[in-house]
Design a protein that fits this description.
Elements lengths: L4 E5 L3 H12 L2 E7 L11 H4 L2 E8 L2 E7 L13 E4 L3 H12 L3 E9 L2 E8 L5 E7 L5
Length: 138
């Protein structure tokens, strides 16, 4: 059994996945548009070009995504993709990258449990927790 995350976007799944691939080291392994699906010919030109299903290997897991019907789409709430980062510098780099055009819920800061921690929603509507943990004894 595997637990994977599926994120719906409001028409910007392709640029989001391309951004994550370029800047976060992900690899897009599949991307199909609504126009390539069985009902593709019946859709509006805008909907045909939107993503029906995308798959990306990133951070040791698989992220799945699609463009939801714009009339029903809402940005992610109460759920976060969490990036476990390897250094203060990497945490700061990713924070600056994802914060550009996004909304900060909790600014990057040192916490009692982490050298760096932040919560934000990027410009694509994806909510993120960024975490570079403080070493703890088991």
């Amino acid at each position: 059994m595997k637990l994977l995350t599926y994120v719906n976007y409001g028409g910007n799944c392709r640029p989001a996945f391309e951004f994550y691939a370029q800047h976060l080291g992900g690899t897009i392994t599949m991307m199909m548009t609504h126009g390539q699906g069985p009902e593709g010919g019946k859709l509006s030109p805008e909907r045909r070009d939107q993503v029906l299903h995308a798959r990306m290997d990133i951070g040791g897991t698989t992220l799945l995504g699609a463009d939801a019907d714009p009339a029903q789409f809402q940005p992610m709430r109460s759920a976060y993709l969490t990036l476990m980062l390897d250094s203060v510098e990497e945490a700061e780099r990713v924070y600056a990258l994802l914060n550009d055009g996004g909304t900060i819920f909790m600014p990057m800061a040192e916490m009692f449990f982490a050298k760096r921690f932040a919560m934000l929603r990027d410009r694509f509507g994806t909510s993120w927790m960024l975490l570079y943990e403080t070493a703890t004894k088991a």
